[in-house]
Description:
The complex is a heterodimer.
Chain A: H1 8-17, H2 19-22, H3 25-51, H4 59-75, H5 80-102, H6 107-127, H7 129-132, E1 138-139, H8 147-152, H9 164-188, H10 190-200, H11 202-207, H12 212-237, E2 240-241, H13 248-261, H14 268-284, H15 290-304, H16 308-321
Antiparallel strand pairs in A: 1-2
Chain B: H1 4-35, H2 42-60, H3 66-88, H4 98-120, E1 136-139, E2 142-145, H5 146-168, H6 170-180, H7 182-187, H8 192-214, H9 224-239, H10 244-264, H11 269-283
Antiparallel strand pairs in B: 1-2
Helix pairs in contact in B: 1-5, 1-8, 1-9, 1-10, 2-3, 2-4, 2-8, 2-9, 3-8, 5-6, 9-10, 9-11, 10-11
Amino acid sequence: MRPSRVPWALLVLVAAFFVPAVGSRFYTFLANDVVIWALFATSLNLLVGYTGLVSFGHAAYFGIGAYTTGILMKRLGVTFLVAFPAAGLVAAIFALFFGFFCVRLTRIYFAMLTLAFAQIVWAICFKWNEVTGGEQGMPEIPYPDFGLLERLAPLLPPLGGYRTSEYFYFLTLVLVALCFWALRRIVASPFGRMLTTIRENPERAEFIGVNVRRYELAAFVLAGSFAGLAGGLFGIFNRGVFPDFAYWTKSSEVLIMTLLGGMGAFYGPAVGALVLLWLNQQIISVTEYWPLILGGILVILLFAFPGGLAGALEALRTRLVRRPRSA
Amino acid sequence: MPDPSFVFAQSLSGLTAAMFLFLIASGLSLIFGVLRVLNFAHGTFYMLGAYSAFQLVQWIGTGPGTFWVAALGAAVAVAALGGLVERFLFRHLYGKDELYQLLFTYALVLILSDVAKILWGTQQKSVSRPPGLNGAFSLFGATIPYYNLFILLLGPFIALAFWFALQRTRVGRFIRAAALDRETLGALGVNVSGLYTGVFVLASFLGGLGGALVTPVRTIVPGMDTEIIVEAFIVVVIGGLGSFWGTFLGSLIYGQVLSFGILFFPRFSIFSVFALMAAVLIIRPWGLLGRPLK
Lengths: 327, 294
């Protein structure tokens, strides 16, 4: 892929910083939601889109991350600076353990085992009242301490005058941008190229001496840890952590997002997150039957635009530019 | 050790649950065996069977025999729906990425469960036991409702009838052949596309029937579809995807593990069935009685 001359990612990031100043509280809330889900969906795309492993249990790592940060911050009073990386680390440890078994299976069996592990995580979160709060979940996760920023405000006026939720949004933006930068580096690295090779032809990769399982496991752990980081942020954003974060329908939701945006493009899943969450907000103000609409969108997508929005845009651009067709 | 009559009652209740699960999971397994796709919408067909049975009972009233008419009518309605979905939509995804087929069935879950909400609301619904089967009797100190006894007898009966149809009839042979090699079957002049529709119809019928028959013992609520589908997945995975007797065995194991799990480790009974599913996938991915996929 040719590097684009316009640094779109950077422009979007800069624009995102102005959402609280320009838009309403509602838009800040929506933007925060989108940013976190964009990271979650992109982490899944590392598996599904880049490595060709269809996971039906990616929500497990999102949930594990959310509970890790939640438990550390609420019950143990640990600072966010430790609790946030811990979400990624704990999710990575679980992904390493679960993934060790999953990558030994292929296709449908892989999907079923990821589902089984995710349901195990869900069942534990659902029942282990002492630690996870059980069915009731864990409400009132505290925000990180932004006292330092507020004390700096007199020196640097642009820093002051925001609500805590808006400070948290800025923090989310910075952290997710860093994660995107890391993910981008990963997929562009020789390691990332090898994942694509494995997706295209695992037998051939095996022939040339690649330890396919080890690469797949590495991708699984990376995807899990980024999902965990997204979950850590989401628990705070959502003001609570609940067992359904790890339930299998959450895994399908993020899969739909990824597909909607397009698995073939790095920013596809992020676009999918944006479009889906925005649509959701628009539609639930009119009707409660959001799943019906979502199902309809999904059917249209599968039949008409299997490449997702990114694929459809690419096709449109090809048609407009009228590039000579290669055979 | 709890007293024996309690253990007996517990194992019977597990057995009853197993028979319901078998009805549902056998359809799921059939579709997987022939079409090689996991049908997430199968649980939704089960739920629609339950709602349709409720609706039919509302319409025709509660007299002798009406429950059975309603149950059968519900199963037929769901079967017809399954046939339509296959013929007009699902068919166009054959040969495409497995992920697309899976997500299509998930789209059906989203759409149909909302349609059910529009039609029947979110209030719990229930159907009373059919007259003649609303009593109970006592055996070894355990109270067994007649309806549960009926289900306990119906399960094996359907299993045997189904097995006989697969082994001994022409269509059954085609279905087994399609599971092994559909291209060759098509080349031999069998109408494979009609066969696929038939398999979908039959599987949806079983799912709908399971849903209709469960109404006298469980309340009908939105969300029963996503719960049961996961249970059915566990059953077919334990028994072996696409394996007929595997599904039966899987249902029996699931029922017992769950009902004794509740007895001994009430907190972790859900956990134990998922752990069992994971263990089977790790040790024998093709299930206890299944065959490895080529």
